[in-house]
Design a protein that fits this description.
Blueprint: H1 10-23, E1 54-62, E2 68-77, E3 80-86, E4 95-98, E5 103-106, E6 108-113, H2 152-158, E7 162-167, E8 174-177, E9 179-182, H3 188-191, E10 199-202, H4 214-233, H5 235-239, H6 250-255, H7 257-260, E11 266-270, H8 273-286, E12 290-294, H9 302-307, E13 312-314, H10 333-340, E14 344-346, H11 357-366, H12 371-377, H13 380-385, E15 403-406, E16 417-422, E17 425-426, H14 432-440
Parallel strand pairs: 1-4, 1-5, 6-7, 10-11, 11-12, 12-13, 13-14
Antiparallel strand pairs: 1-2, 2-3, 5-15, 7-9, 8-10, 15-16, 16-17
Helix pairs in contact: 4-8, 11-12
């Protein structure tokens, strides 16, 4: 999957620095607005229970489970979906969202972004997605520790129907632990799901610029995982200084405990078919729950991936081939994987353009992926692949109330979100870009 620091993104990132200067920084004073009144202490909570009850009425509801309900009502309370169905009575006093003639879907999820970690791609002082240094083992690095819930990218992204994102670290071999962010909230506690989301291993590049490809990366990964397994079994001996030296720090070895125990998935960033199989074999050797990210040549080995139900995160619009590892890249990768029975997740593999997730999914449909599968690939599939399928990804009682009301088919570029609900709260779709547009469209044109 694309690393935002890679040379082939330099030109795009340079352009973004210029546009960001005018759209996401304080280069110009923001429009004056009254200072918000301080919120009462009781209103600040990490739980979605603070959201007032709402009802979404009359929509054409795609539940994400394959079921489609016409003229349905969704009742939401305490941040969760309480009931969903036709003919439900709306309790007195409950605020309603009129969805008549509109389409309702689960909120979209981008499984591979650095939203909240990166503001300006080429300005290091605004980046928190990489621990830095030359140590290739950074498993203890937590994306959650650097997440900025006030990032201007959050409002821009959710205005296009993306309600959640996997916030992913980059750099090194073991890059660190990602986090699940719901794109609303004024604190990390009110935004991030508890605990690490996944451990990320990058097999798709050289180790800190040194020579050596996937074979060298696999060798080091195997050594580190073996050390972590030994450390977990013999922690007491290590504490007494009665164990052999390990290839990683104590915190890194501890951080791998959840992955070795199967509590969190391990996302292998890898493209070449042979290397994908090597990563799967490594996961089997150490009892890991593998997810493949990138997977440019995954279609070549689709039956083997389907046999083990290993999810693959792909970007159908990834330009390529971009390297010798991606020579087999093709735009119908997602369609071929789906046809073989592989769980497919679609991503933009981007941070500043995660808002274009539905366009990327729409292009997968153009290349042969069924429409329903494309919707699942940006709703239920990422939640399931990353271990949060019990709470996210579909519209059902007990699920977190993340949903979008659309003016039309959400994969059609002419459609737009009419309402976005995150953790049971209808969020404001205004953002930095819309504020600048409103302000500067009224200025006279210089002649």
């Amino acid at each position: 999957m694309t690393n935002p620091r890679s040379p082939r993104n330099t030109f795009v990132s340079s352009l973004f620095v210029l546009t960001t200067f005018f759209t996401t920084t304080e280069a110009f004073a923001q429009p004056a607005r009254p200072a918000p009144a301080p919120a009462p202490a009781a209103a600040k909570t990490a739980e979605p229970a603070a959201a007032a009850p709402i009802a979404i009425v009359g929509g054409h509801v795609h539940t994400g489970t394959g079921e489609v309900l016409d003229d349905a009502t969704i009742l939401v309370e305490k941040g969760l979906i309480q009931k969903i169905g036709k003919g439900l009575a709306v309790p007195t006093g409950v605020a309603t969202i009129d969805a008549k003639g509109a389409i309702v879907t689960p909120g979209f999820v981008d499984a591979l972004t650095s939203i909240g970690l990166v503001e300006v791609s080429l300005e290091d002082s605004t980046r928190d997605d990489d621990r830095g240094g030359k140590d290739p083992v950074r498993a203890a690095f937590r994306a959650a520790d650097g997440y900025n819930p006030a990032s201007t990218l959050i409002g821009i992204t959710r205005a296009e129907g993306v309600t959640s994102a996997a916030v992913v670290p980059f750099g090194g071999l073991f890059s660190g632990q990602s986090a699940w962010a719901d794109l609303d909230g004024d604190s990390r506690e009110s935004t991030l799901a508890p605990g690490p989301l996944a451990l990320h291993v990058h097999l798709d590049g050289s180790l800190n610029g040194d020579r050596g490809g996937p074979a060298s990366a696999l060798l080091l990964a195997r050594e580190v995982l073996d050390d972590a397994r030994t450390f977990q079994k013999n922690r007491a001996a290590w504490e007494r200084n009665q164990s052999r030296a390990f290839s990683a720090s104590r915190l890194d070895l501890e951080a791998m405990g959840d992955a070795l125990a199967g509590r969190v998935p391990v996302v292998f960033h890898v493209d070449r078919a042979a290397d994908i199989l090597a990563a799967v074999a490594l996961a089997k050797e150490f009892g890991l729950r593998p997810v493949i990210a990138g997977g440019a040549e995954a279609w070549k080995i689709a039956p083997r991936l389907a046999e083990s139900k290993i999810p693959v995160i792909v970007n159908p619009l990834e330009p390529g081939p971009t390297s010798f590892d991606t020579l087999g890249m093709r735009d119908d990768n997602a369609a071929l994987l789906h046809a073989a029975g592989v769980p497919v997740v679609i991503t933009t593999a981007d941070t500043h353009n995660a808002r274009k997730l539905r366009q990327v999914a729409g292009n997968a449909v153009r290349a042969g992926l069924p429409h329903a599968a494309a919707i699942a690939a940006i709703t239920s599939a990422p939640a399931a692949a990353l271990g949060l399928g019990a709470k996210y990804g579909t519209l059902a009682p007990g699920k977190v109330a993340n949903l979008v009301v659309w003016s039309g088919d959400p994969l059609e570029i002419a459609s737009r979100p009419l309402a976005v609900v995150i953790r049971g709260k209808k969020v404001d779709l205004a953002n930095r870009q819309s504020a600048l547009f409103t302000r500067y469209r009224k200025l006279p044109i210089a002649r």
